Amino acid sequence: MTAKVALLIGSLRNGSFSRAVGRAIGELGAPGLELQESAIGDLPLYNPDLDGEAPPASWLRLRGEISKADAVLFVTPEYNRSVPAALKNALDVGSRPYGRSVWDGKPAAVVSISQGLLGGFGANHHLRQSFVFLNMPVLQQPEVYLSNVGTLFDESDKLANDNTRTFLGTFAGAFADWIARTKTVPAKTD
Ligand code: FNR
């Protein structure tokens, strides 16, 4: 069975390497995964005061998309050794109103990237910290920290590194298996 996977990109930048990596994973044609990006750049900063009878339309859109998805794939850079604010805001928006979190029980996986050597480790693990509270079962292995990401693509933004393509294929296969095994995690405890 094919799992519908919401793809959340932690960068709002037009030429984002994170988005290029997310697109490349989708184009691998991994059996069992169908990726669809959920936009996060138009979400007003989460404010409970706005979450009454008429919450912002983009909040409702995101919540609907995540609710319908079987799983969520996060592809993100690291900002100041942590999760980019836009992505953290998306987590916050989806987690409320209290008791109606759309993240609850959703299988997840994280890919972090950097143009330097560290592969976005800080963002990757700070995201995982939030997943504990959000009750999201997250794929543990293989971990994906893509360093020197600027060297992996050719001029037409296609993944040009065979080792990375093979590795991402292994990751995508493991994620598909993980979704199949964890999709039935029971709902909310908070
Ligand atoms: C960065 N960058 C960065 N890189 C890193 O490895 N560790 C870090 O802590 C940071 N911090 C940071 C803060 C801010 C505000 C910006 C704008 C950038 C660099 C960043 O990861 C790099 O530019 C990525 O290529 C951005 O991802 P996208 O936009 O290519 O997906």
TrEMBL record:
Gene Ontology MF terms: FMN binding; oxidoreductase activity
Domain of life: Bacteria
GO CC annotations on file: cytosol
Domain NADPH-dependent FMN reductase-like: 4-148
SUPFAM superfamilies given in the database record: Flavoproteins
Gene3D superfamilies found in the cross-reference section: 3.40.50.360
InterPro entries in UniProt: Flavoprotein-like_sf, FMN_Rdtase-like_dom, NAD(P)H-dep_reductase
Entry protein name: NAD(P)H-dependent oxidoreductase
Organism: Ectorhizobium quercum
Lineage: Bacteria, Pseudomonadati, Pseudomonadota, Alphaproteobacteria, Hyphomicrobiales
